[in-house]
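Re: weekly structure request thread

Next one in the queue (312 aa):
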Amino acid sequence: MAQRTAEDRKRMWRAVDVALAVVLTVGGVGYAVYAIVGRWGLDQGYIGDRWLDYVFAAWVSLYVTTIAFVIGLVIGFFFGWIRATRSVPLGKIMRDAKKVADAQGLDHVPFPATQIIWHGFKYIVRRFGDAFVAVIRGTPLFVQIVFVWSVLLIRVPTLNPLVLASIAGLIALTANTGGYQSEIFRAGLQTVHSGQVEAARALGLSKFQAMRHIILPQAIRLVIPPLTNEYIGLLKASSLLIVIGIEELTGFGRREAFDFFKVFESFALVTAIYLLLTVPLSRVIAYVERRLRIPGLGIQEVTAPRAPRAAT
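Done, posted below.
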């Protein structure tokens, strides 16, 4: 019998891995269903009557998460772009102004007020962005939510408590995801080699055109997977809004658990809904990452072909 090639062996072991994964998954799910429904007596009547209310609570979680994430995209891209740009020394600005004056035959060097103001603005925003990201990454989201809620409670004590809690939760989630997205965008923009930008400028493209046609098309493909991960993390982190009275999925499950004494059923439903939301998104991340992978940028999947064994 002819000896199997390395590729044949690879396909065989891949099939074995898939078969084992299917067996373990089906067995684990089957045992979990038996343990939950059969052995521990899950109240199926309660689940049948109340599951739509849990779906609505999940919709609240998705709604708040999506609004905070979209606003955070704007904040994250702005600070990420500002923090990714290189700082031009003031001395270089003055030397460039002198070169322009010499080329035009001027007796005096005009003061580059516009460039200096723009340079100072970018410097201030960059430092502010650094401080903003440091605060967001250095404090727990729980503390951020309670801090924003307490500030609003002091400043506008007459506001409806539910409206106040909703605004505070949205501000805290937006600021949190904006800080983390800033780091994602900064890393994505800085991954594009500076030589490409210099080549674009040498070809006559403006900074805006280089950003639009050279940097962004590559950076966006690099930041989509981590941004999707950030959305999943933010969706799970939205459960912390329970501390200020917002009844999202986890808060609704907690209330149901204590009102109807259905702790196990309530959090079984909460767990199942979170998994139904996050697991498909995780699979989408893996697929998008494979489709958008850029050779030479980011983490690459390298598979070295195994040399065939010599026949004995």
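The chain is about 80% helix and 0% strand. The two ends are 13 Å apart (CA to CA).
Next request, please.
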